[in-house]
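Quick one:
INPUT:
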């Protein structure tokens, strides 16, 4: 769009006849037509497809050079702009695709292509290529930094699991048939009071690591807050979730941390959306705590003689 507009405006000042002006306007109209067509193209499916933009500009300039005599040499400054575009939106190696077209356009645009022009073109080519490389590397670093910042904003620093913000987004994506688990370390406040917060942090970090090892690739784990953790287990039966938690409890006991955990399980259904299922899992956890801790309870299911309902309940902070 910019190049087409530049050509149209410049056509008023370069001292050409009417026919050449019409050719410049036609070339600009062609660029604008490509722009309109491009709005209908799903570019996300063709990551390299947008190379068509700088290539189209260079081809248009080369064609204009053949039909407007020496006038298009005034537009040679648009060539480096195409490499700026390549560097901003493509990997650096994409410049190698555009460079031969740029050379051809430059040769077509210069009035006389002699040895001096060849030397200039060689230097220009190096500068054009280097411009695209520097911009591509800079953009890659910025994208990587943005990705890492986004990951940090959604990751719990201590356990490397998801944090509360990330959990809320994942919960909104839960579907009927998914299983939600809330696990809570028993008597964790006592651990902090007797052995110090450093020891408590070490236990949290280790427990987070064990959770990450026991879940499947499609599963998700997050630190809910304090010593609470939430699991989202897609397409999982509550009994399967309980079996996994029992295996985790057995291995966790072998670590001799002196800290057990309790867990509540609930299922997302059509009538129980993720938020309600999480509340039901929380109530099941409360029942597990009330039954003596180091327990696993499924909401609405009798386990160990205790029937769990989805009724409201509260839990003391000192768990």
């Amino acid at each position: 769009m910019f190049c087409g507009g530049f050509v149209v405006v410049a056509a008023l000042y370069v001292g050409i006849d009417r026919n050449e002006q019409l050719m410049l306007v036609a070339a600009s109209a062609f660029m604008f037509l490509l722009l309109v067509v491009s709005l209908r193209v799903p570019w996300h499916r063709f990551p390299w497809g947008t190379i068509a933009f700088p290539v189209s500009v260079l081809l248009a300039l080369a064609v204009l050079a053949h039909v407007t005599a020496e006038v298009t040499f005034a537009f040679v400054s648009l060539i480096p702009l195409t490499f700026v575009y390549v560097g901003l939106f493509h990997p650096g190696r994409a410049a190698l695709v555009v460079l031969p077209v740029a050379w051809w356009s430059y040769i077509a645009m210069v009035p006389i292509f002699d040895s001096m022009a060849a030397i200039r073109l060689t230097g220009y080519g190096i500068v054009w290529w280097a411009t695209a490389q520097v911009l591509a590397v800079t953009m890659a670093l910025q994208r990587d930094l943005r990705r890492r910042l986004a990951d940090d904003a959604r990751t719990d620093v201590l356990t490397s699991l998801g944090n509360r913000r990330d959990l809320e987004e994942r919960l909104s994506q839960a579907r009927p048939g998914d299983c939600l688990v809330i696990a809570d370390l028993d008597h964790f406040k006592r651990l902090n009071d007797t052995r110090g917060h450093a020891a408590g942090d070490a236990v949290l970090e280790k427990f987070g690591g064990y959770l990450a090892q026991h879940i499947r690739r499609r599963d998700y784990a997050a630190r809910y807050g304090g010593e609470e953790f939430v699991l989202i287990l897609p397409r999982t039966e509550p009994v399967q979730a309980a079996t996994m938690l029992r295996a985790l409890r057995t291995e966790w006991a072998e670590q001799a941390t002196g800290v057990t955990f309790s867990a509540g399980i609930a299922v997302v259904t059509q009538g129980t959306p993720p938020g309600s299922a999480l509340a039901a899992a929380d109530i099941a956890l409360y029942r597990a705590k009330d039954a003596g801790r180091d327990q696993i309870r499924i909401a609405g299911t009798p386990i160990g003689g205790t029937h769990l309902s989805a009724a409201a309940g509260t839990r003391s902070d000192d768990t």
